[in-house]
Design brief:
The chain is mostly helical. It folds into 2 domains: 3-18 and 133-200, Orthogonal Bundle (Endonuclease Iii, domain 2), CATH 1.10.1670.10; 27-128, Endonuclease III, domain 1 (Orthogonal Bundle). It has helices at residues 3-15, 27-36, 42-55, 59-63, 67-74, 80-97, 106-110, 117-128, 137-146, 154-164, 170-183. The longest helix has 18 residues, at 80-97. The radius of gyration is 18 Å and the shape is elongated. The mean pLDDT is 97. It binds iron/sulfur cluster.
Length: 207
């Protein structure tokens, strides 16, 4: 078995069933939660969205909020002014153009304000079950350390991961890599000595 396959096999065994830590009940809630999650923790986002979705459960009602009102709800997520502007802009488009629904293509999603490929891929895979690999900071770092990718940027990493991981595992592998990045292969001082991939990781003990 080559190393990439063995790495994926072990990741799956350790993180089987890993799911997003963000709480959501539908595509709209997931989109909003991911848009809020930049530069903050999933726990913080979950605390904010519980109250926000009670007040504005869909695109139409969120688009009707005053900017200052929305900012009050999301303030603790940081960058609240920009996030509020993007959310209001996106909700207006969803309400006007899609009848309040969230579209299910990369092109339509990334046309919404504040929505990049990573956010779109999270929504496509977790809300619509469309195979996709969202490359966030953990996925980028861990996959390049492990040799599942050898790329300088997130776009190229995504392309290489799609090549190196079977399509039916794309969405799951995204979660495995995030969990490994949070628990073991951290940005600073990765725990190589405790890592179950140390013997086959090209970066083991060298980061
Ligand atoms: S051996 Fe070290 S660098 Fe490689 S995946 Fe494990 S923690 Fe990360």
């Amino acid at each position: 078995m080559d190393d990439k396959k063995e790495i994926l096999r072990r990741l799956e065994r350790h993180y089987f069933g890993a799911r997003p830590a963000l709480r959501f009940r539908n595509a709209f809630e997931l989109l909003v939660a991911v848009m809020l999650s930049a530069q903050t923790t999933d726990k913080q986002v979950n605390a904010v969205t519980e109250k926000l979705f009670a007040a504005a459960p869909d695109a139409k009602s969120m688009a009707a909020l005053e900017p200052a009102e929305l900012e009050r709800y999301i303030k603790s997520c940081g960058f609240y002014h920009t996030k509020a502007q993007n959310l209001l802009g996106a909700c207006r488009i969803l309400a006007d153009r899609y009848g309040g629904d969230v579209p299910s293509t990369m092109e339509e999603l990334t046309a919404l304000p504040g929505v990049g490929r990573k956010t779109a891929n999270v929504v496509l895979s977790n809300a619509f079950g469309i195979p996709a690999i969202a490359v966030d900071t953990h996925v980028f770092r861990v996959s390049n350390r492990l040799g599942l990718a050898d790329a300088k940027d997130v776009r190229e990493t995504e392309t290489q991961l799609m090549r190196n991981i079977p399509m039916d595992k794309w969405s799951d592998a995204h979660h495995w890599l995030i969990w490994h990045g949070r628990r073991v292969c951290t940005a600073r001082k990765p725990k190589c000595g405790e890592c179950f991939l140390f013997d086959i990781c090209p970066s083991g003990g060298k980061v």
